[in-house]
Amino acid sequence: MSSKDKNLSFPTSEVPNVSNAKIGVITAEWNDDITLPMRDGCIATLHAHGCTAADLIVVSVPGAYELPIAAKIMLANQKMDAIICIGCVIKGETKHDQYISQAVAEGIMNLSILSGKPIIFGVLTPNNHQQAVDRSKGKHGNKGIEAAHTALKMIDLAAKLKNQDKPKIGY
């Protein structure tokens, strides 16, 4: 189902409560009318699922392009269970958005794989500003909330596998 037909802020499976998990939230300042509501929704969701202010490190960077390096710096200097990267790259008149989006996506994925820690891609890549609004505080929910759900689920999965519990199979 495409996101135009679904509100992404309502998870399809249970979101676990996680306490004492250290989670970083990195938000791009570019397109802040979009990214700040995403950040706020993310933080509220983390609080609702057992994270305290002491569990979170919340920082900002100039734009989406800086998200992967900020996540790497955070991992190098803090003991983190997950990092959520929040940004918005809106298509423009040139291909600039494609280069930024691809670099950010690859940087976040590579860092996640190399570090073994969930680095969550909470970056919107809409065609226009209205699509960004619809996915940050509109009819399609809030991508920041979805990113928080993803981080919580991945932290829970890592804990279960570390403790040799069998994760609940989704089928």
Describe what this molecule looks like in 3D.
This protein is α/β, with parallel strands linked by helices and 171 residues long. The protein has one domain: Rossmann fold. Helices cover 44% and strands 15% of the residues. The protein is built from five helices and four strands. It has helices at 32-48, 67-77, 96-115, 129-136, 143-162; strands at 23-28, 56-61, 82-88, 119-124. It has a four-stranded parallel beta sheet with strand order 2-1-3-4, with helices on both faces. Helix 1 (32-48) links the parallel strand 1 and strand 2 (56-61). The model has no long low-confidence stretch (mean pLDDT 89).
Annotate the secondary structure layout.
Elements: E1 23-28, H1 32-48, E2 56-61, H2 67-77, E3 82-88, H3 96-115, E4 119-124, H4 129-136, H5 143-162
Parallel strand pairs: 1-2, 1-3, 3-4
The residue fraction in helices comes out at 40-55%
Question: Mind telling me the C-alpha Rg?
Answer: 16 Å
Q: Could you tell me the mean pLDDT?
A: 89
What fraction of the residues are assigned to beta strands by DSSP?
5-15%
Tell me, what is the CATH class? Alpha Beta
Number of strands: 4
Number of domains: 1
**H/E element order:** EHEHEHEHH
CATH superfamily: Lumazine/riboflavin synthase
Order of the strands making up the biggest sheet: 2-1-3-4
* Shape by Cα distribution: globular
User: How far is the first residue's CA from the last residue's CA?
Assistant: 18 Å
- Please state the structural category: alpha/beta
Low-confidence stretches: none
- CATH architectural name: 3-Layer(aba) Sandwich
> What name does CATH use for the topology?
Rossmann fold
Number of helices: 5
Largest sheet: 4 strands, parallel
